[in-house]
Amino acid sequence: MTIFRMLLLSLIGLAALGVVRTRDLVSQVLALTFYGMLLAVMFFAFQAPDVALSQIVIGAVALPLMIMLVLARMRHRERTLAEQKDGR
Amino acid sequence: MSQKVRLRIFWICAAGFACIYFLVAKNLPPWGHYRGPYGDVISSLSVYERHATDVVNAIDYDYRGFDTLAEEFILFTSVLGVMMLLRPPERKATPSATAEESMSPAVQLAALPCFAILILFGLYMSTHGQLTPGGGFQGGVIIASAPMLVYVAEHFRAFKRITSHPLVEGLEAAGAAGYAVIGVTAFAAGVPFLTNWVPLGVTGKVFSSGTIAAISACVGLEVATAFLLLSYTYLAEIIADAGKTK
Amino acid sequence: MNSVIHTFPYLVAGWVFLCGLYGIVTSRHLVHMVVSMAVLQTSTYILLLNIGFRQSGAAPVFADLPPSTRIVDPIVQALMLTDIVVEATVVALVLAFVVKAHENAGTLSPDDLRMMRG
Predict the structure, then answer these.
(1) DSSP letters along C42-99, please?
(2) Is residue C65, in this structure, part of any structural domain at all?
(3) Which candidate from B142, B231, B237 shows the least CB-CB separation from A65?
(4) I want to staple B195 with a disulfide (CB 3.0 to 4.6 A). Which of A44, B4, B186, B204 is the partner?
(5) Rounded to whole angstroms, how far apart are CA atoms A77 and A80?
(6) Angle (nearest 5°) at CA C63 between B216 and A3
(7) C99 contacts A74 by C-beta, under 8 angstroms
(8) Which of C74, C86, C100 has its CB closest to that of B39?
(9) Is residue C25 part of a domain?
């Protein structure tokens, strides 16, 4: 079990580096969600079920939702600005 | 400052931090041998003192209740801040029939039971926080994620009808105020603020642990409506334009 | 080997902290910066969790455990629960600022935001 926990921690260290090194924004949100799921698994493995549950709902629902919506909103705004420029 | 200089400064600082942190980590109590007394004291007390079997929630909503009250108001004010910053543009969305574009009937049919299950699961979680893992925060976010299913399966306007209802804002305020009011009722019993003065009930039953269950339900209400308002605020501009242009 | 296991989890927390800081320093997009900040904040969970952990300790839920069971520290877990929700609210508020910056400045690169210069 100790080995499993250490492997999980190493995986989290790698995933954190992966998240910040990803430059494409949509892939980065997906990477962040994966990282959040890894954290949730770690919380379960380290006997913290309450924290794992809240990490699942925040990391899998709230954070990606908000960031994706902001990205959609920016893309949408850029498109309307471009349309307005074309229309003139 | 150029990118290169900034990165160089970062590497120097990171090296310094790593050295100091390594020395600190080496002298921490060895991993897996927790020795602080507080965790043991509180875990041996919470079942007897508060009749709550989930110690984490007993700490969050009772022993450290004042802190969680402040935290709930952090959530409240940040939602307020987001709504003020991203006020939806004062545009008259002319609803057109073509805006009713929705997904295939199969997706809609699948979304319906999922919606019901999510709401039920969220309610279960926020009312059983004192017994099993879970509690107001987790349940609240689960409830708030259910209307997103409506947005995915149906059109924008069904989602808007749920989330822009004035009741949502009222319920958010009620959830935040409810926590404080529960704290104030302790004065009526002649004990300090946020004291758990309600009869504690039988350990292991839903209506046990006094104010912990009530506070957990209040937090669930507040969190659910807060995240609904957040998702609506972020979507508002897109919704307004989709009603107009499509 | 034992001494490695005794400090490695704490080092992971420091590593994640540095990763998040590196992401913030090298960021060329404000949304990227927000995500890096979220990663930075997760380092506190890892540190807290590992400080309160106890080998062969059970989860702090006595629903089906005898009251004298050895459990891991519930106090740090309560702190982490608070921390996670605060992280979500901080990200929500900062993202609102990002949207506003995009609307007012028309750019999202932190280097091009002249109004943020001292």
Answers:
(1) HHHHHHHHHHH-BTTPBPSB-TTS-TT--B--HHHHHHHHHHHHHHHHHHHHHHHHHH
(2) no
(3) B231
(4) B186
(5) 5
(6) 105
(7) yes
(8) C74
(9) yes
Burial (0-12, 13-18, 19+ Cβ within 10 Å), B244: middle
Q: What is the CATH classification number for the domain harbouring C30?
A: 1.10.287.3510
**With an 8 Å Cβ cutoff, is B173 touching chain C?**
no
Q: Which pLDDT tens digit goes with each residue over B28-77?
A: 888 888 887 888 888 888 888 888 888 899 899 888 889 999 999 999 99
- Residues of B with CB below 8 A from A62's CB? 141, 227
Q: Which two tokens stand for residue B129?
A: 């926080």
CA distance C80 to chain A (A): 7
Residue type at position C100: K
Closest CA to A66 of A34, A23, A24, A33: A33
- Whether C86 is covered by a domain: the verdict is yes
Structural domain boundaries enclosing C107: 2-55+71-116
Q: Which of C18, C71, C84 has its CB closest to that of B43?
A: C71
| pTM, entire model | 0.89
* Maximal CA-CA distance, chain A: 66
C66 within domain boundaries: no
Please check whether residue C99 is in contact with residue B85, taking contact to mean a CB–CB distance below 8 angstroms: yes
Q: How many CA atoms lie within 13 A of C113 on its CB side?
A: 20
Taking a contact as any Cβ pair under 8 Å apart, which residues of chain C between 68 and 107 contact chain B? 68, 71-78, 81-82, 84-86, 89-90, 92-93, 95-97, 99-100
Q: How far apart are alpha carbons B203 and C63 in whole angstroms?
A: 9
C52-97 tens-digit pLDDT:
898 888 888 888 888 788 889 999 999 999 999 899 999 999 999 9
Count: domains in chain C: 1
Closest approach of chain C CAs to the CA of A51, in angstroms? 5
Asked if A19 contacts C23 with a C-beta cutoff of 8 angstroms, the reply is yes
Please tell me the distance from the alpha carbon of residue C57 to that of residue C73, in angstroms, as a whole number: 9
Q: Position of tokens 């960021």?
A: C27
Helix then strand count (H, E) for chain C reads 3, 0
